[in-house]
């Protein structure tokens, strides 16, 4: 049958510590691929504009206090859970219609940041089950020390060396063989190129209709 009937977009996730350059790499990648005429959208979690997102934003800015479990569950809601299916079904319909999604942080951030506070990792993962599984996870690798040297930590609650060390360890635990790791100490053009190649490969595979949209 016609290959194009199966054409779908790819769900591509970027993860990494604060100051790993995720957000600027996501933006560059997105605009390059738009120029190439690839149907693509850039998403980020948490979306601070939603109602729940505003509670999180105020917590991250140290303007309000919430206990660790509550923050975790609020973040889970923003990433699109069964009980809050809006993002999930929107993502799914975009992918099915052939649009690729580049996502700046996903459920891995949820687990890494909350377990870094000492919450049980299995407890953290439990409510994330059932989310759409990414076709590609790229980890922008930087040591917490190097990240801190880059300066410009914005003063948010999590932007502290000690805490980022914990987060980094949790990411190591979460990482499996399928994650692609890019060393962000490379020149910026090399990072961009590596990232673009990984992403284009993944888009091609998904266009050929290989594999269903998975669930985690
Ligand atoms: P940004 O600095 O990228 O805006 O992220 N976080 C994010 C969690 O703790 N759990 C999650 O599920 C997600 C998506 C990571 C703000 C902070 O939010 C953290 C950093």
TrEMBL record:
Organism name: Stephania japonica
Family, according to the entry, reads as follows: Belongs to the thymidylate kinase family.
Q: Which SUPFAM superfamilies match?
A: P-loop containing nucleoside triphosphate hydrolases
Which superkingdom heads the taxonomic lineage of this protein's source? Eukaryota
Statement: the UniProt record of this protein carries the keyword ATP-binding: yes
Instruction: Report the EC code(s) recorded for this entry.
Output: 2.7.4.9
Keywords recorded for this protein, A-Z: ATP-binding, Kinase, Nucleotide biosynthesis, Nucleotide-binding, Transferase
Q: What Gene Ontology terms for biological process does this UniProt record contain?
A: dTDP biosynthetic process; dTTP biosynthetic process; dUDP biosynthetic process
Gene Ontology terms, MF aspect: ATP binding; dTMP kinase activity; nucleoside diphosphate kinase activity
One Gene Ontology cellular component term attached to this UniProt record is:
cytosol
**InterPro entries, sorted:** P-loop_NTPase, Thymidylate_kin-like_dom, Thymidylate_kin_CS, Thymidylate_kinase
Q: Under what name is this protein listed? A: Thymidylate kinase
- First and last residue of the signal peptide: none
PROSITE patterns (alphabetical): THYMIDYLATE_KINASE
Q: In which pathway does it act?
A: Pyrimidine metabolism; dTTP biosynthesis
Q: Where is the Thymidylate kinase-like domain?
A: 14-194
* Gene3D superfamilies in alphabetical order: P-loop containing nucleotide triphosphate hydrolases (3.40.50.300)
């Amino acid at each position: 049958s016609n290959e194009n009937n199966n054409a779908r977009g790819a769900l591509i996730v970027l993860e990494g510590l604060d100051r790993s350059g995720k957000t600027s790499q996501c933006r560059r990648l997105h605009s390059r691929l738009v120029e190439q005429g690839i149907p693509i959208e850039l998403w980020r979690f948490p979306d601070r504009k939603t109602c729940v997102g505003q509670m999180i934003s105020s917590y991250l800015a140290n303007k309000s206090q919430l206990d660790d479990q509550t923050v975790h569950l609020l973040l889970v809601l923003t990433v699109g859970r069964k009980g809050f299916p809006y993002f999930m079904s929107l993502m799914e319909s975009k992918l099915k219609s052939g649009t690729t999604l580049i996502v700046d942080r996903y459920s891995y951030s949820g687990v890494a940041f909350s377990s870094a506070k000492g919450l049980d990792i299995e407890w953290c993962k439990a409510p994330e089950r059932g989310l759409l599984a990414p076709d590609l996870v790229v980890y922008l690798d930087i040591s917490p020390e190097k990240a801190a040297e880059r300066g410009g930590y914005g003063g948010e609650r999590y932007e502290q060396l000690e805490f980022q060390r914990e987060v980094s360890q949790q990411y190591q635990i979460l990482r499996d063989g399928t994650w692609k790791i890019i060393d962000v100490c490379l020149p910026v053009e090399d990072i961009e190129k590596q990232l673009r190649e990984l992403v284009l490969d993944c888009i091609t595979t998904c266009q050929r209709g290989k594999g269903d949209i998975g669930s985690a």
